[in-house]
């Protein structure tokens, strides 16, 4: 009996210490993307312990949106899963290089990620990504 409890404890400790891998996670844009319009995402997070919907905690998955014009970053924003799924990201934001440029189409990427610790060092772990073009 004690041997079983020890083995179960070791398995649980290893499971909790295993870094996030993201295999099976996904992200996709909901509808067409357009400058100065909100865009939400459909998201699946694996392992589910990283899907902390409604909580902004350092071990929860997050989404970053990066948009480029002519290869230069013109807009970037990160938010929690609630923002990504419900309120969305207003592409271009209130003031970004995209706004300064006066709009126009942009090539964008949305990354589903989590901050993790690997050997005591904080790391950025990409769980899933999607690309889309935002009309201007």
What does the model show?
By secondary structure, this protein is α+β, with helices and mostly antiparallel strands. The chain has one domain (20-135): Immunoglobulin-like (Sandwich). It is built from 3 helices and 9 strands. The chain has helices at residues 2-17, 81-87, 97-100; strands at 26-29, 33-34, 38-39, 41-44, 62-69, 72-80, 89-90, 106-118, 121-135. A 5-stranded mixed β-sheet has the order 2-9-8-5-6. A hairpin with a 2-residue loop joins β5 and β6 (72-80). The model is unreliable at 1-19 (pLDDT under 50).
List the helices and strands and how they pair.
Blueprint: H1 2-17, E1 26-29, E2 33-34, E3 38-39, E4 41-44, E5 62-69, E6 72-80, H2 81-87, E7 89-90, H3 97-100, E8 106-118, E9 121-135
Parallel strand pairs: 2-9
Antiparallel strand pairs: 1-4, 3-7, 5-6, 5-8, 8-9
Summarize the structure.
The chain is an alpha+beta fold and 136 residues long. It contains three helices and nine strands. A hairpin with a 2-residue loop joins strand 5 (62-69) and strand 6.
